[in-house]
Amino acid sequence: MNQPSHPDSPGFRRTSRSLPIALLRARETVMGPIRDMLSQSGINEQKWRVLRVLDEEGPMEQTALAARACLLLSSLTRILKTMEAEDLLSRRVDSADRRKSIVSVTDRGRDLIHRHSPESAAIMQRLEGRFGADRMEQLLDLLEELHELEP
Amino acid sequence: MNQPSHPDSPGFRRTSRSLPIALLRARETVMGPIRDMLSQSGINEQKWRVLRVLDEEGPMEQTALAARACLLLSSLTRILKTMEAEDLLSRRVDSADRRKSIVSVTDRGRDLIHRHSPESAAIMQRLEGRFGADRMEQLLDLLEELHELEP
DNA sequence: TATTGTTATACTCTATAACTATA
DNA sequence: TATAGTTATAGAGTATAACAATA
Asked: B105-131 burial string, b = 16+ CB within 10 Å, else e?
């Protein structure tokens, strides 16, 4: 059996045309060099996303941060604990609503981000060079629009 | 500090224009209903990808399967062991090269895939209806081309 | 009562390396 | 020597639920 059992069934697209699989495979292609970069800093993808979101959007509460960084709140709780111990960010209770805690990047966290700026830019430029700047913009537009679909 | 520390630095794009983050967020949007579907079958995303790839591309060795399903070979070894016990697939030693083992879907595995065909189609059609069929095709083209970049 | 965040549990994936069998 | 797959381990994320504090 070397042929799919439903070559053109309406139920499934080819896996290369399955959006979830295509997104994952594309991401694997992109993440290779970025993982190499991050592993040199003792930081992983998840912590990196937390720092990037905070650096970009400023201090925010954890529920919002979890959503922006694509993490469960319970995963974020654990991650923030170690990042706070590493002095990459700080938390303070929201004075207006004391259930909330507001997370901010520290100078040390910002430093870590910005130290990677040149290498990050180089990685993206290399990718853009091979893929095409126009198509890169097109792709980012489509991904952003897709993400905004959800209610 | 409610502004990013580098609003237009060359090193970083906005996270919504960061390809790795944009790919992840878009995937989260898409996977919601699919996870609901799979959880009713006692199967997870990884097993689902393994079945989809095998069903589409036919029997193949594990190294190739791992690459196609975006899994590490060591993760695949464990997954295949339970899937074989569940009679979703079978393995046989390659007679030409006895280091290799060839993995095939069983009838039961194919059944499981095809049982989800209508619901899977409905999920994709609903998404396409909101996102636009043309843009969906465009997006899949770009993702496929991006994935093929890798040497 | 509902929300924010924490903790706990069980399961799974990742990353790495050492190991075997075969080539 | 190199390759295909297995096993072991440590670390981390996922999914879920129960929980405390606050609203």
From this structure: bbeebbebbbebeebbeebbeebeeeb
Whether the per-residue pLDDT at B10 is higher than 90: the answer is no
Please report whether residue B134 resides in a domain: no
How far away is chain B from the Cα of A62, in angstroms, using its nearest Cα?
15
Structure tokens at B147: 């994935």
The model's pTM = 0.88
Q: Report yes or no: B72 and B31 within 8 Å, Cβ to Cβ.
A: no
Domain carrying residue B71: 17-124
**Cβ atoms within 10 Å, residue A124:** 22
At A2-30, the pLDDT tens digits run 445 444 455 677 888 889 999 998 998 88
8-state DSSP, A8: T
Does the residue B6 lie in any domain?
A: no
- Picking from A25, A45, A75, A104 by the largest number of B CB atoms within 10 A of its own CB, the best residue to mutate is A25
Helix (H, G, I), strand (E, B) or coil at B38: helix
Protein CA at B101 to nucleotide C1' at D8, angstroms: 21
- Cβ neighbors of B70 (< 8 A, separation 6 or more) are A21, A24, A25, A28, B49
**Measured in angstroms, what separates residue B21's CA from nucleotide D21's C1'?**
33
The answer to whether residue A135 is domain-embedded is no
Closest CA to B69 of B44, B106, B91: B44
Give the separation between CA B78 and CA B71, rounded to whole angstroms: 11
Q: How many distinct structural domains can be found in chain A?
A: 1
Residue A9 in any domain: the answer is no
Q: Could you tell me the CATH number of the domain that includes residue A100? A: 1.10.10.10
